[in-house]
Input
Amino acid sequence: MPGKRVVFLGPPGAGKGTQAKQVVAKLGLLHLSTGDLLRDEVARKTELGEKAKGVMDRGELVPDALIIDMIRGRLSGARNGFLLDGFPRTVAQAEALAGITDLDAVVNISLPRDEVVRRLTARRVCRGCGAIYNLTFNLAAEESKCRACGGELYQRDDDRPAVIENRYDVYEKSTAPLIAFYSRRSLLHSVDGRLGSDAVLAEILRILGA
Output
């Protein structure tokens, strides 16, 4: 159903990106991921992109004001609805977003810490084409070459247990207040990320009335 205004929340490894691609394809929504948005603005050398590049080149975090300006610009053209993935990350960002647009639903794909660690430590990436595999879902333990291009498969540094534990801590600290923020506004819907991908998608579509 076109016109839905949706936010996805969830810890690293919960499958937000995978689900987002399927939901936007089915419902015709504009998919806005803050990472993709930043890269696009920088690549197109927009005024906002140039400002963001300067900040990133200094190794600093892109300030909320810049991110919010980018989001505002994209949402102005989202006449058939949108799905925000990776934004907002804090209550301050959520309050700024509320000043730009109303939302129809906030979907939290929940996943416990042990499952996040299990999934992400099993992830392998191709050095050649960037294809992603997972020992849990679609890769045998003895496989070391990409099925698509034959490139070497490796484990990224940020997919090691200690790093993942830290990422989960950061996520919990910043997102717990966000979950409360949207619960108070009767917008929050939680989906168990331990379900299979198809079941998670079906539940999200049910929530969105599609």
Remarks:
- The mean pLDDT is 90.
- The helical segments are 16-27, 34-43, 47-57, 64-75, 91-98, 113-121, 161-184, 197-207.
- The first strand starts at residue 5 and ends at 9.
